[in-house]
Amino acid sequence: MKITQVVCQVLRIPDVQAKTASSQDSVLVRVRTDDGLEGVGEADSSPEGVKAIVDAPFSHNIACGLRQLLVGENPLDHERLWQTMYRRTMYFGRKALGVTAMAAVDMALWDLKGKAFGQPVHRLLGGKQHDRVRGYASILFGRDGKETADIARRWVAAGYAAVKFGWEPMGTSEAVDIDLVRGAREGLGNATLLIDAGCVYDARTALRRAHAFAEYRPEWFEEPLRQDDIDGYVWLRDRSPVPIAAGEGECGRESFRPLIDRRALDVYQVDISRCGFTDAAYIRGRVEEGGGRLCNHCYTSPLTVAASIHWLSTCRDAFLFEDCVEDSPLRHELTHEKVQSVGGWMEVPDRPGLGVTIDEAFVKKYLVAESK
Questions:
Q1: Confidence at residue 327, expressed as pLDDT on a 0 to 100 scale
Q2: Which pLDDT score, from 0 to 100, does residue 16 have?
Q3: Of the candidates 314, 323, 369, 359, which has an alpha carbon nearest to the alpha carbon of residue 342?
Q4: What's the pLDDT tens digit per position in 312-330?
Q5: Which of 161, 191, 332, 359 has the fewest beta carbons closer than 10 A?
Q6: Is the pLDDT of residue 267 over 90?
């Protein structure tokens, strides 16, 4: 079996308001073989940036486009191909955009491998430890506590026993922050509350907020600091009355390594569309041996949602699954299958590969760029 094509497609939903979310566009990588199989992957990154890295011509031995590295290779050699891609893109990869492009390719390779062997990806990763995982509705804060409470009631009524609120306007002031969290708890009742600050605090302010939020019983306090403030996370985790979660912005094992080595977090959030299955499996092992907890990060299409539940089901302590509930066509219509929590639970698919099929009519409707 040989790779014959690597096609990169950029999709974009028109007229999406400016906000901190990523269900407004997507970049798909489609790996095709000489025996007619296709694997599909996705990156949560700059779509045009990923496409440039896939399509780039050869510059020199450590600055090479991914397509040129992959065509003619055996797609089943995922570990060797990951190392090849990593080494041959050292001048524009390593811990950021280049690794997200590799992650999309890697997701496609695992999807293809599952189809080749007639097995779901979770079995190829070593076997699922859970048939289902409790989903939490992942959504942005309202404009104030009152609107946030209304949003909370909506998702509890929809069957979710856990809801996460994130980003703006958190960080505006202490009064605003407490109002938002108080409103969330009021709307949720006894359901699980998760808080995503969106990287707005310094460590001392974050500690003050953690103490202020503690009375509202959040399950975790996510990304209170800048993603690169490793020292701050170590300091904060040792002092916070609320568990600290982070990791969604990390791209691959090298990016996660300092967080894991220094036990900087209580909950490590791994995004398959930024890490790929190959590095996510390594990260899983490292976190579990250190006694940390794992959760997925996912705020894009059903393709990444499916990839995430395959991976998370193989984690020993898979206690929550991030289920983006953005009202976006990309979140709900890219695949023929609906990949969403039912009754507050995310079921693990058992179909070959990722277990989802792309709706080509949807791709055609929203396609803005494609590899030639």
A1: 82
A2: 66
A3: 323
A4: 999 999 999 999 998 888 9
A5: 359
A6: yes
User: Which residues contact residue 351 at a Cβ distance below 8 angstroms, ignoring those fewer than 6 apart?
Assistant: 120
* Burial of 84 from C-beta contacts in 10 A (0-12 / 13-18 / 19+): middle
Comparison of pLDDT for 332 and 134, the residue scoring more? 134
Nearest-angstrom CA–CA distance, 285 and 275: 14
At 319, list the tokens: 């206690």
Q: Which residues contact 213 (CB under 8 A, 6 or more apart)?
A: 177, 178, 181, 195, 221, 242
Rounded to 10°, the helix 203-213/230-239 angle is 30
Q: Is the pTM of this model over 0.70?
A: yes
> CB burial class (10 A; 0-12, 13-18, 19+) of residue 195?
buried
Residue (of 54, 107, 103) closest to 371 by Cα position: 54
- Tracing tokens 């929590």 back to the chain, one arrives at 341
**Which residues make beta-bridge pairs with 346?**
133
Q: Which two tokens stand for residue 204?
A: 């001392």
Residue among 95, 81, 90, 28 nearest 252 (CA): 95
3-state secondary structure of 137: strand
Which two structure tokens, joined as six digits, stand for 296? 């997925």
Please give the class, per CATH, of domain 124-347.
alpha beta
Kindly report, residue by residue over 3-47, the tens digit of the pLDDT.
999 999 999 998 766 655 667 899 999 999 999 999 999 999 999
Per-residue tokens: 111: 């999807």
Residue with tokens 């959760």: 295
**Residue 195 · residue 221 · CB < 8 Å:** yes
Q: How far apart are the first and last CA of the chain?
A: 23
Q: Give me the residue spans of the domains in the chain.
A: 3-118+359-370, 124-347
User: In the block, which residue shows the tokens 């055996």?
Assistant: 74
